[in-house]
Amino acid sequence: MRLKIVQNFDSSFTLAPEAKETLFKLLMGESFLSQICQNLQWEKVEFTELLFQPNPYSLDTPKGMPAEFEQYHASSEYTIINVPPNFMFNAKIFHPSRLCAVYRKIA
Length: 107
Prior knowledge:
31% of the residues lie in helices and 20% in strands. By secondary structure, the protein is α+β, with helices and mostly antiparallel strands. It is globular and about 45 Å long. It starts with 16 loop residues before the first helix and ends with a strand.
């Protein structure tokens, strides 16, 4: 099995307004926010409305994300989660097939 090295990866995407609205409602749902808090043992979180498509690992993207999102990965005040596949399906988002969402800890 050969390893394929990705030199360039276009991580840009655009969501239809209806799909974005549905997805944001799901990502801001009280029960989902409670699950995140419970898993992280935080009191409260808020969705920052920042989404990105995970990138293949490379020398330019060692964290598997666009460089502008690495600041959130390094911060203890933020968390990055994979958007659940059922949320993607319910919002009728099929491309990109995976998204990550950024949440901020509220003190």
